[in-house]
Specification:
With 757 residues, the chain is mainly beta. The protein is built from four helices and 45 strands.
Amino acid sequence: MCFVWTGSLAFSQNGSINGKVKSGNEIVPYAKVSLMGTNHGVISDMNGNYVITNIAAGQYTLVATFIGFERHEEMISVLSNAKTTIDIDLKANQKSLDEVVVSGTMKPMSKLESAVPVEVYTPAFFRSNPTASVYEALSNVNGVRPQVNCAVCNTGDIHINGLEGAYTMVLIDGMPIVSGLSTVYGLSGIPQSLIERVEIVKGPASTLYGSEAVGGIVNVITKNPTNAPLFSADAFVTGWGEVNADIAGKFKKGDKVQSLLGVNYFNYCNKVDNNNDNFTDLTLQNRLSIFNKWNFKRKSNRIFSLAARYVYEDRWGGEMDWTPQYRGGDDIYGESIYTSRWELFGTYQLPLKEKVLFTFSANSHQQNSVYGDTWYIADQRIAFGQLTWDKKIGLRHDILSGVTMRYTYYDDNTPATSDFATALNMPSNTYLPGAFMQDEISLNEYNKLLLGIRYDNNSIHGNIITPRLNYKWHSKSKKSIVRLSAGSGYRVANVFTEDHAALTGSRTVVFLSDLNPETSWNGNLNVIQKAFTKKGLFMTFDFSAFYTYFDNKIFADYETNPNQIIYDNLDGYAVSNGVSLNVDLTYKNFSLLVGGTAMEVYSVSDGVKERQLLTEQFTGTWTLGYKFVKAGLKLDYTGNVYGPMLLPVLGENDPRPAESPWWSIQNIQLTKSFTNIKGLEFYGGVKNLLNWTPWKNMDANIIARTNDPFDKNVTFDTDGNAIATPNNPYALTFDPAYVYGPNQGIRGFFGFRYTFD
């Protein structure tokens, strides 16, 4: 049956056309088919069939459109009192969200066919709320929250479904580039002009990617030099004085070599103290990032690509009168971090009949930092190599197997890399060889099963095995999709590279025992339902339910002793579970993506259940857009909302609230494009429309004892606990770890984009 959205079905001597809408050998149901400049139009049925009747004889332009495919136009002739059959072959849109994903199974496949649910976000999504880094851009992704970990230096990480940033693995082109020491800094400086898309897998993925992928994956896919524009630029400034610029260009040498070069520069040097605590509200930063990617054409189109990135950053926050001459001293408090980092990664397809890929990466991260008078000098180097074999057996089995080796060198000036007995420096050298295999089994046209297992041998912790199982079903029309998954994960922790609070402020770090690897078991249900109306409204409902159970969970105890951070494996278990829903609506020039996640993250020890600190129980996001086509304008309204979370207060006398309020960051933007200057856009708007900051409506400062950041006037008892005195009535110590959201208020912004193909 076909649904007529305009036009008449009355019988006449006029002609008609009919046919089937396909893409290659696949039918395309519910596509819009119309004759340009007329009122004739229908929606194809679930089998891709369409019929348009009562057409006057003549020449017409036949148009077919459907989300995820390129617009199809062709000239046709209609004869009187005759039926004409015209089949339509739609081409998949290379920029479509449903085109290709790689993160779920480590090899390219259509998003629809993937047994692992993968969320894909294109540059168009991030342009609705321009930011200076990928870290900030993820704030509008449902279930993903950038967490600020320090109120002074504003370092942060990415939380997925309530799990801390140490559980999130960040990949660049599938390579584990950002980890360990770079977790809190590595997400800045990736030129957004070079990003093709960002893929997010929520839930453990240790079977394919190993340790650190317990909470999920953020995979930043950079552009292919072949498809990238010849030149692009994107720059903006804000009312606070932030300046961000992305510039990219490509060049080639003959027919065999193509290269893409990008530069990102960010600068903020304006001291602001709106909450009058004599500390900077926003960390001052000066950052330069250079990215270069090469593609080499080889025989039989075998893959060979090579990419490199260099990042330098100088950031500091602290008392308003701090200058570099006070760096590391105890006169004026400041947190100053110098970061120098390089990365190299690539893919090489071996000259074999079988598809065998060698992927490799290496990076070096050097950090020279001070937190008041505490020095933290660290050097981390990681080398990674992986050999994968992609083999199809018969019509049903698609096997991917591989072996990996990861070497990590880590050295710093803390007790983490010294011998407690001799006090001699002992850098950490960790070897992590592993092997994995997965079999994607096509049970029939509608059902797929994925079985996977990974084995790792950690040179410190020994053997670790992580299995997984994924199942996918889709309906004949492909409007309904169900995915089920179950499996295990593991994580090995390095406290000083993951928990910024272990270095900042005046708390002493205490280890109650040698930390053992965490293990987890998880289950996930994902249901997608697509719907449409005959008037052109397209809707997608994406529902997920998730559950993860942790053994040996590594936790930081901030509450037993307000002057200590006590690390240990949990004597009990921990759970992260919840549900989420995304709704994507498109109607003519209007689009809306709205989502919400309700979750509970807690631990149980000695029969006592405790909520996890700094974890909201509800989060919501939205991205609303409307195009004024004739005026060349687009309006974007984006935002997020977070429920209350428990906060790390300094004991029961701390005047700061032990729980955050509901809070929301909202933004609006207007973009102007020009029909006579292709590729040029100007944009501007307002960020944080509500002017929300964590210190609003608080009687106390966010940072405790800003008047005495070195605790020179704090009196301690024999156990190291602060004692209440006339000048310290709440028995507090200096503490910048009490922070849960950005401390930057309302500001305007203005920028431009230019792309030349």
